[in-house]
Design goal:
about 0% strand, mainly alpha
Length: about 220
């Protein structure tokens, strides 16, 4: 199973590294002009990586990956909803600068996380990388939540205008589902989920950066 996990983490590392490097090179080459077409340049690879991350929930359920299911489930579903429901479904949102910001924050975290996971499963331990993996999220994760919230806010006028995902069920049900209302409710749930995940990550950080854990890994 360690070989399988190593290959999985390696694939994710390569995908997110490619996205991250591509974004930086494009920005250095084209400046602000590169921000507007970020989704068109790397959106496919981003969707593949995020779709593949659903496997991590299966890893936890079958016991080959040590993680709590609910926090990971919340993190993955947050990204899936924002990427596939909010951004991919609205072409007008895809060209917004917030998409570039969001992708940058996601991949910054994932390049570090998958590097750490890949080395850990192979029995390699670096104290600096461990510290970075369990510390980088402190500034980056809240910023990514704000970026997600802003992406939802930017998408609302388009969902309202085009009626995407809004449906009206026929008689005798006679029920209308107005999708912008659902997005607004999800916006509140996003910050509630942030509180839960932040508490979990703080506990996780304390456990992994404790003196006893470091001594155990060194030995």
């Amino acid at each position: 199973m360690n070989i399988y996990l190593f290959i999985y983490y390696l694939i994710q590392f390569c995908g997110h590294s490619w996205i991250f490097t591509n974004m930086i090179i494009r920005f250095l080459s084209f400046g602000k002009d590169s921000l507007a077409d970020t989704f068109y340049s790397i959106g496919l690879v981003m969707r593949l990586c995020q779709s593949l991350s659903i496997l991590e929930l299966l890893h936890i359920l079958v016991g080959i990956e040590e993680n709590r299911f609910l926090p990971r489930f919340l993190q993955i579903t947050e990204r899936i909803i924002i990427l596939f429901v909010v951004i991919t479904s609205q072409e007008e949102v895809q060209g917004k600068y917030i998409v570039c910001v969001l992708f940058f924050l996601w991949n910054l975290l994932d390049v570090v996380r998958y590097t750490y996971c890949m080395l850990s499963v192979s029995g390699t331990y670096y104290e600096a990388l461990t510290w970075l993996n369990y510390t980088l999220w402190i500034p980056v994760y809240p910023l990514s939540i704000l970026a997600k919230a802003f992406a939802i806010y930017e998408s609302l006028p388009y969902f309202e205008s085009f009626g995407t995902y809004s449906i009206k069920l026929p008689f005798p049900v006679a029920l209308s589902i107005y999708f912008p209302y659902i997005l607004k409710m999800y916006l509140a749930m996003l910050f509630a989920g942030m509180y839960f995940i932040t508490r979990y990550r703080c506990t996780e950080r304390k456990a992994h950066l404790g003196a006893s854990y470091i001594k155990e890994k060194r030995s």
